[in-house]
């Protein structure tokens, strides 16, 4: 949101959002502003108290078989909510419903997200897949035996353990980088383009390559699902917040039947219209994300003292990419060509897998130097398999287009001798 500073300072959240000039479509005028807006944070920035609260809520929901229910539900609707425009809006409601269930166990719990991009080089080495958080690869019978999901069984398909199946030598293929997502945020003028650029790439590869139950239609059985989708939802929310007037209620493309979508379409098997979930902070969508708040610098009441001190500034990573040839910027990072760009269309921050999000504002934190030997050696993201594309009802042409674009971007960055700040010397 680009607001006059005086109005941002002088008025409360409600007024600030009205100043932004969002014109709600018919029906949406009646959605009221939430009295309490929670801030979803990167999993690694939770305090141990917040993490314990989250864990306890998830374990409660698990023991009452909510996890089975959400897995079952997702499987029932899957062919309608993937590979088309319903993807973002349906999953936004889905994870919000889950968060509400979790509140039945821990009233103050907030769903975190997993910034999978900063782990893209070496996902299996991410602390998020370690003992402290969600546990790693499946062991005997591919059953997960570490972390939060240690020895989980679900029952709706029969009594089965929760499985994960990484690739060879317990490692996971390369995922999509902050550079890629930044590029998609800057070059997707429509909802449908953003959806295709995210679902067919970042979204799919995380599911497919964690494998096991994540690579099925009942993937919500794996507790990783919710943090991955919270991150996908964050990218969508950031894209909306770049231009709230234009994008809050932008909805285009087609549904699973090939029909043009409309704001009044009901989300599959629900009585909720698409427009009801689009504006964060309104109706039942009483949350936002830390990256959006930090970038906006408004609605100060929502921020902790530490975050309030945190002014958005171009990160070292951003400065590196801005020095690339103009032609490359024009093709992949049009906003970096401008003097001023929205921090919301930039995932290039000085953060690392071990120091996520909060480190951006942490003066004493210096990100590790990227390894010179990786200059010009950015890896390609992994590809989706034929089986996955079929299972998810994705459009093979659309997937190919997203993958080829991502690879062309990697080629050009490498040709320009770019050194990605998110690559580490894994031999060390
Ligand atoms: C969990 O499922 C596995 C099969 O995947 C089974 O061998 C094991 O006995 C189950 N554990 C419990 C506690 O039911
Ligand atoms: C800030 O940086 C210091 C030193 O690197 C680190 O120990 C601390 O955990 C960081 N705090 C946050 C909130 O990231």
Automatic annotation (TrEMBL):
PROSITE patterns on file: TYROSINASE_2
Database matches in InterPro entries: Di-copper_centre_dom_sf, Tyrosinase/Hemocyanin, Tyrosinase_Cu-bd
GO molecular function: metal ion binding; oxidoreductase activity
Pfam families recorded: Tyrosinase
Sequence ranges assigned to domain Tyrosinase copper-binding in this UniProt record: 222-233
Highest taxon in the source lineage: Eukaryota
UniProt protein name: Tyrosinase copper-binding domain-containing protein
């Amino acid at each position: 949101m680009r607001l006059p500073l005086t109005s941002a300072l002088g008025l409360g959240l409600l007024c600030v959002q009205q100043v932004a000039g969002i014109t709600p479509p018919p029906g949406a005028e009646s959605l009221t502003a939430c009295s309490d807006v929670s801030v979803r944070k990167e999993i690694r920035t939770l305090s141990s108290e917040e993490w314990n609260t989250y864990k306890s809520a998830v374990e409660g929901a698990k023991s009452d078989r909510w996890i089975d229910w959400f897995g079952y539900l997702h499987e029932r609707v899957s062919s309608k909510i993937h590979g088309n425009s319903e993807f973002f809006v349906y999953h936004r409601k889905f994870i919000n419903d889950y968060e509400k269930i979790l509140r039945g166990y821990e009233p103050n719990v907030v769903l975190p997200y997993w910034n999978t991009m900063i782990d893209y080089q070496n996902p299996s080495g991410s602390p998020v897949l370690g003992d402290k958080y969600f546990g790693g690869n499946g062991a005997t019978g591919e059953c997960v035996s570490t972390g939060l999901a240690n020895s989980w069984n679900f029952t709706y398909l029969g009594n089965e353990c929760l499985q994960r199946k990484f690739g060879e030598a317990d490692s996971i293929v390369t995922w999509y980088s902050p550079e890629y997502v930044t590029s998609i945020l800057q070059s997707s003028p429509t909802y449908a383009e953003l959806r295709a650029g995210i679902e067919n790439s970042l979204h799919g590869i995380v599911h497919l390559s964690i494998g096991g139950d994540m690579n099925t239609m009942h993937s919500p059985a794996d507790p990783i699902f919710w943090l991955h989708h919270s991150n996908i939802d964050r990218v969508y929310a950031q894209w909306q917040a770049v231009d709230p007037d234009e994008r809050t209620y932008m909805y285009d493309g087609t549904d699973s039947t090939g029909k043009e979508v409309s704001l009044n379409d009901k989300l599959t098997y629900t009585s909720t219209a698409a427009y009801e979930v689009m504006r964060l902070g309104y109706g039942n969508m009483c949350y936002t994300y830390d990256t959006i708040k930090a970038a906006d610098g408004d609605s100060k009441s929502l921020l902790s003292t530490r975050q309030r001190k945190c002014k958005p500034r171009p990160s070292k990573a951003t400065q590196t990419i801005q020095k690339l040839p103009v032609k490359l910027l024009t093709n992949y990072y049009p906003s970096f060509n401008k003097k001023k760009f929205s921090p919301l269309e930039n995932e290039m921050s000085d953060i690392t897998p071990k120091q996520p999000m909060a480190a951006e504002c942490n003066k004493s934190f210096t990100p590790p130097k990227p390894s010179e030997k990786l200059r010009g050696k950015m890896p390609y993201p992994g590809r989706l398999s034929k089986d996955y594309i079929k299972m998810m009802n994705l459009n093979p042409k659309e997937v190919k287009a997203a993958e080829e674009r991502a690879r062309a971007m990697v080629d050009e960055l490498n040709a320009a001798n770019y050194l990605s700040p998110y690559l580490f010397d894994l031999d060390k």
